[in-house]
Write a structure and sequence with these properties.
Layout lengths: L8 E15 L3 E15 L2 E9 L2 H8 L3
Antiparallel strand pairs: 1-2, 2-3
Length: 65
């Protein structure tokens, strides 16, 4: 019978609170709740997805892509 490596993948969600401020010719503040989704493989975080309670506020904080 062929041997297969063990698959060790964990997906976890956790509530988060983000409070940030930056200076770009003026103070800009962002303070909101969200949810972080992490995919863990072995002992490392492989991927992270961040879901903000107010995406428009976050887009305004970080600026145009």
């Amino acid at each position: 019978m062929p041997q297969h490596p063990a698959i060790n993948v964990l997906t976890a969600t956790c509530p988060s609170r983000t409070s940030l401020a930056r200076i770009a010719n003026k103070w800009t503040v962002m303070d909101q709740d969200g949810v972080d989704l992490l995919r863990v493989e072995g002992d490392r975080i492989a991927e992270v997805w961040l879901f903000s309670s107010d995406p428009a506020e976050e887009d305004g904080f970080w600026g145009a892509a």
